[in-house]
Amino acid sequence: QVQLVESGGELVQAGGSLRLSCAASGRTFNPYRMGMGWFRQAPGKEREFVAHIRWIDESTYYADSVKGRFTIFRDNAKNLLYLQMNNLKPEDTAVYYCAAQPDGSRGSYRMPNGYSYWGQGTQVTVSS
Fold first, then answer.
1. How high is the pLDDT of residue 107?
2. CB 123 within 8 A of CB 12
3. Which of 24, 45, 50, 98 falls 20 to 30 Å from 81 in CA-CA distance?
4. SS in 3 state form for the chain?
5. Which residues, 6 or more positions from 30, have their beta carbon under 8 angstroms from its beta carbon?
6. Which of 122, 120, 52, 113 is nearest to 93 (CA)?
7. Contact residues for 103 (Cβ-Cβ < 8 A; gap 6+)
8. Could you tell me if 124 and 85 are in contact, meaning their C-beta atoms sit under 8 angstroms apart?
9. What's the CA gap between 95 and 56, in Å, rounded?
10. Per-residue pLDDT tens digits of the chain, which is 128 residues long
11. Could you tell me if 116 and 98 are in contact, meaning their C-beta atoms sit under 8 angstroms apart?
12. CA–CA dist 29, 79 (Å, integer)
């Protein structure tokens, strides 16, 4: 199995920055065969895609709402995934989740059902 643990969420003012981390572990976790993503969920809303990084070439993909402000990157040697968030806005307030997509998964990287493993989430609150 795979365990994912997020950290780094906190209260920040609009225009500020945060870096979220996701630590991966587990007997079957292989960073060289796992696409990794970040999703977020605000109260009363569905979980939405934020960013994804491919395992094969580390190509990155972003939701339009965060493009140019957020950066996803990983440290495979340490089994860590990051989300650098700059110029934060109040509408970025949500619980942020990291997720792992094993090699061969059929689902889209933009959809929650494309991932097999999830962390418990970390709260990000952006005040205006």
1. 86
2. no
3. 45
4. CCEEEEECCCEEECCCCEEEEEEEECCCCCHHHEEEEEEEECCCCCCEEEEEECCCCCCEEECCCCCCCEEEEEEHHHCEEEEEECCCCHHHCEEEEEEEEECCCCCCCCCHHHCCEECCCEEEEEEC
5. none
6. 122
7. 33, 34, 35, 55
8. yes
9. 28
10. 899 999 999 999 999 999 999 999 988 788 778 899 999 999 999 999 999 999 888 999 999 999 999 999 999 999 999 999 999 999 999 999 999 998 888 889 999 999 999 999 999 999 99
11. no
12. 9
Give the whole-angstrom CA distance, residue 113 versus residue 27.
22
Contact 78, 102 (CB under 8 A): no
Query: Which residues is 97 bridged to in the sheet?
Result: 39
Q: From CA 99, how far away is CA 40, in angstroms rounded?
A: 11
CB 21 within 8 A of CB 10: no
